[in-house]
Amino acid sequence: MISVAPGLRDIIRPGILTFEGLRVVERNERLEAWLRIAEAAVRGRAPSDAAGVRAMYRKVGLDPTRRRPSSEALLRRVLRGESLPRVNTIVDVCNWCSLELQLPYGLYDLEHVEPPIVLRLGEPGEHYSGIRKDVVNVADRLTLADAHGAFGNPSSDSARTMVSTATTRALAVVFAPAELEREVLDRALDLTATRILTTAGGVETTRIVI
Predict the structure, then answer these.
(1) Averaged over 88-100, what is the pLDDT?
(2) Per-residue pLDDT tens for 1-23?
């Protein structure tokens, strides 16, 4: 499903899930209640420090205080008293999981991803149109790319492959540090799959840890 460039295999271990038959909507009141509970719980007791994710960034030459992992950005947002972003049901689920587990997530519409998919470092000058951002530069950054080029990284994903209410097939990627214990990543995938299927229906079609 996804290959990892040889030079990154000691740095990052992605966990991969795919789904079909999803029913994505903008808002679900049951999910909304769960998100409010999760936000309050995090403000009461913040998740453990994400030192492993920060180290993963530093190993490829990135300063995680300047280009923050999406998981850390979500945590900082909630601790400031703001809510998690509300986008649509499965984006909101992945943000919820990322917040609690302090692992960066990527979520992509498989109708707009063309294999082969590789996790590599971005090439000089490489960039894409971001979600709610003009341009995301990915040169020398951990990057997912398909036959059309770069489309995702652990900080910010592309508009080309974003999930919308039209999405029925999706790819979720947990960008885990290579040092993370396998059982911890397995639990993260279990939690993510359960929450997505409970919220959006459908079926899980792939589960891989590279």
Answers:
(1) 98
(2) 899 999 999 999 999 999 999 99
Farthest-apart Cα atoms in the chain, separation: 44
Helices (H), 46-88: 51-59, 70-79
**Can you tell me the distance from the alpha carbon of 143 to that of 126, in angstroms, rounded to the nearest whole number?**
10
Q: Which residues of 169-193 are buried (b: 16+ CB within 10 A; e: fewer)?
A: bbbbbbbbbbebeeeebeebbeebb
C-alpha–C-alpha distance, residues 153 and 141, integer Å? 8
What domains are there in the chain, each with its CATH number? Answer: 2-209 (3.50.40.10)
Q: Which amino acid is residue 167, in one-letter code?
A: T
- Could you report the per-residue pLDDT of 141-159, keeping only the tens digit for each? 999 999 999 999 999 999 9
- The model's pLDDT over 189-198, given as tens digits with 9 standing for 90+, comes to 999 999 999 9
Tell me what the mean pLDDT of segment 29-52 comes to. Answer: 93
Helices (H), 107-181: none
CA distances from 55 to 46, 63, 97, 176 (A): 19, 9, 20, 11
Token pair of 167 as six digits: 């999405």
Calpha distance 19→93 (Å, rounded): 14
Residue 96: helix, strand or coil by DSSP?
helix
Whether this model's pTM surpasses 0.70: yes
3-state SS assignment for residue 119: strand
Helix (H, G, I), strand (E, B) or coil at 41: helix
